[in-house]
Amino acid sequence: MFTATLMAPPGRLETSAVVALYGAWGGSQLDWLSAGEAAEFALQVLPENQWQVWADLQKLQIDLVVQVSEGRRKKLLLADMDSTMIEQECIDELADVAGVGDRVKAITARAMNGELDFNGALIERVGLLKDLDVGVIDTVLADRITLMPGAAALVSTMKANGAYAALVSGGFTAFTVAVSAQLRFDENRANTLIVKGGKLTGAVGEPILGRAAKVQALEEITNKLGISTQDVMAVGDGANDLGMLKIAGTGAALHAKPAVAAECSVRINFCDLSALLFIQGYPRATFV
After folding, report:
1. Domain CATH for 269
2. N or C: which end of the chain has fewer CB within 10 A?
3. Are 46 and 82 in a shared domain?
4. Same domain flag for 6 and 26
5. Which DSSP category does 83 fall into?
6. Whole domain around residue 3: which residue ranges?
7. Candidate list 31, 56, 82, 133, residue with the active-site label
C-alpha cells in the first residue's frame, strides 16, 4: 500500500484538487489532516504519472508526496539547521555584520547548490570573519535568527510520540547549542569557530562537519538507538545534506536548491515544516 499526501499553505488546498486526484488515481480512505491544508488517501499501486502530476500541482502551489504506507512514522528526526530549522544562514548573518555579507552570501549559495566543495567554501567564508568580536554571535542570535515555521511542532510532536531528535549542521556550535535548546533537540552537532582574545581567528575547528559527517551522524545515532535507517526522517536544503537525505527512510528536501531537490523523492517547496508531520500521518489536531 502507498499513501499520497497533498499539502498547501493554510487555506490554499482546494477540495476539488484533492478529489480530482483521488478519483484519477483510484484512491481509498480519503482523510483530511487539516482543512484547507493537508489531505491523504491510500493507493494500491504506485502511479506511473506521479511526477507529471507533481509538476502540474506545483503550478497550483501544492506539494505532493507519495510513499510506502508501512513505516512512514519515524523514530529519529535528523535535521539540518540553516535554512531548515531556522530561516537564515548563520554565517551569512555574521558576515553581514562584519561588512562582507555579499561576498559570503555568494559563496554560500554556490556551496549549497553543490557548485563548490563544502569544506573549502566553509574555510574561505570563515576566513572573511577574522577579527570579528565574538559578542556579535549573541547579537545575531537575538536579533536576526528566527525559527522556521513548523519547527517547534515538528520536534515536539515527534518526540511526544517516542522519536529522538538530532540537529546536525554544517554551521557552528555557537548557534546549534542555542537552537537545539530552544527546540529541545536531544543532541546537536556542528563545526566550531576558533576564538582567541574575544575575537574570531578566521579558522574553523577540524575535522569539518560536512556531508560525510552528517552520514556518520545518521549511522552512529541509529546504531545507538538500535533502529534502522528506514526509521529516519532527515530534512535539509543543501548539497551537503544529500548523503543523509538519500540514506534515510524519508529524506525531505525542504525549500531546497534545485540541484538538491532533483535528487530527492520528497520535495517540500510551498509548505513549512508541518509538512513533515503530515506525511507521517499526523493530523494538525494532534500536533504538540
Report:
1. 3.40.50.1000
2. N
3. no
4. yes
5. T
6. 1-70
7. 82
pTM of the entire predicted model: 0.94
Amino acid 197: pLDDT:
96
Among the residue ranges 36-40, 208-212, 217-221, the one predicted with the least confidence is: 208-212
Q: What is the CA radius of gyration of the chain?
A: 20
Domain boundary among 42, 70, 98: 70
Q: What is the pLDDT of residues 164-210, one digit of tens each?
A: 999 999 999 999 999 999 999 999 999 999 999 999 999 999 988 88
Q: Are strands 193-196 and 250-254 parallel, antiparallel or unpaired?
A: unpaired
Asked whether the predicted pLDDT for residue 65 surpasses 90, the reply is yes
Q: Is 102 a catalytic residue?
A: no
Which of the residues 31, 56, 63, 80 is marked catalytic? 80
Residue type at 240 in one-letter notation: N
For 223-246, write each residue's pLDDT tens digit. Answer: 999 999 999 999 999 999 999 999
Q: Is 279 exposed, middle or buried (0-12, 13-18, 19+ CB in 10 A)?
A: buried
Q: Which three cell numbers stand for residue 130?
A: 577574522
